[in-house]
Amino acid sequence: MDVAIIGATGDVGRAVCSDLIEHGELGAGSRLQLVGRAGGSSEAAVHGLRVDLIDAYDEKAPHIDVATSPDDVVADVVVVAAGRTIPTGTGQTIDRDRLAADNRIVFEQYADSLARHGSGHEVVIVVSNPVELAVEVFARRLGRHRVIGMGAWLDTLRFRREIAATLGIRRQRVSGFVAGQHGDRMVPLWSTVRLRGLDADERLEIVERLRGDRTLASFASEIATAKAHVTTQTDMAAAFGMVDAFPPDLQAVIRPYLTHTSGAKTANGTASATVDLIRTVLDGRDIVVAGQVLLDGEIELGGMPWRGVLGVPVAVGPEGWTRVMLDDLAPDESRLLWEVGQAINEAIVAWGGGQ
Ligand SMILES: NC(=O)c1ccc[n+]([C@@H]2O[C@H](COP(=O)([O-])OP(=O)(O)OC[C@H]3O[C@@H](n4cnc5c(N)ncnc54)[C@H](O)[C@@H]3O)[C@@H](O)[C@H]2O)c1
């Protein structure tokens, strides 16, 4: 199997390349394509990155090649990690509209090229932001089932880790999903949480203890209050310490937010979750993950079949995602998912997606 990384020389792109080789996901018979931008700094840097990766991993590296034109992207799995990013550091203004306007051009360029020159079977894993816009752009051109945004999977892994850490157990014992929009507007699906080795009653008791008497109706205001609270703290170690006292769903939003405002990025966690998704696609079996996908009535929200990009649990295999794996939701979950779905659809229209 071959993998192409668009934006390979970026922070996330580099980390994905190293992780993929380090964990042996691509054998000697596979190809890793590093994609840079002609006319940009990455045009030269992709060649340097290729040599550096061979230098580091000669014994186990796959065949590594370079492309600097969207028309030359060829792979079974294409990772989209190119484009502008959200600025790090405190006091940085986040202009999502500008990010969307700039990155939409990049998304359209690659999606159009893949539609024209691709094999017709590539699976696209989107890392770039706004992830929902990118999924919309690629899915409209390549087919819905071949395009998966990784934001919901990253949010899911964070949610599971926070639950596991609070309970003092390993993350592998926790399942359950995060749906919705990547980041602040994630929808933690507490009704899907399972703890291996515990029966239903024990699980319910623990979930109640972790959640307290909160419902998702207050989640957005809790996030706003928590952000305001942690940003009053100038000592970053103390700010991270404050997060330890939050419930797990709030921790899953605020800890990465703080990481970003600290001036560090979330490149390693993002890359690890991306490689996890690539492994799932290469694995050949249908495995349930969460991802942003373009829905066409697979689920009902607000009493009607839902159409638009939304993060949901999906079965993923070598051809992309096949089914949405969402059972009956709790009333607060379907309400919030409906609100978030509406907001995403409106944003995508405002950003000129859906064309
Ligand atoms: N989904 C997530 O959880 C998540 C987490 C972190 C970052 N991100 C997103 O991933 C993207 C990359 O983040 P980063 O931190 O690596 O940014 P970065 O600035 O370090 O890297 C971006 C890379 O894209 C390259 N690039 C720009 N235009 C290109 C084009 N047309 N063709 C090929 N390459 C091009 C740049 O040369 C650069 O190397 C951003 O949009 C960011 O918001 C997503």
From TrEMBL:
Active site residues of this protein: 182 (proton acceptor)
Annotated ranges, domain Lactate/malate dehydrogenase N-terminal: 2-144
InterPro entries: L-lactate/malate_DH, Lactate/malate_DH_C, Lactate/malate_DH_N, Lactate_DH/Glyco_Ohase_4_C, NAD(P)-bd_dom_sf
Superkingdom of the organism of origin: Bacteria
Gene3D superfamilies registered for this protein in UniProt: Lactate dehydrogenase/glycoside hydrolase, family 4, C-terminal, NAD(P)-binding Rossmann-like Domain
Binding site for NAD(+): 7-13, 103, 127-129, 236
Pfam families linked: Ldh_1_C (PF02866), Ldh_1_N (PF00056)
GO BP annotations listed: lactate metabolic process
Annotated Lactate/malate dehydrogenase C-terminal domain residues: 154-245
One term of GO molecular function: L-lactate dehydrogenase (NAD+) activity
Keyword terms, alphabetized: NAD, Oxidoreductase
Family per record: Belongs to the LDH/MDH superfamily. LDH family.
Record protein name field: Lactate dehydrogenase
Organism listed in the record: Demequina capsici
Lineage, highest ranks first: Bacteria, Bacillati, Actinomycetota, Actinomycetes, Micrococcales
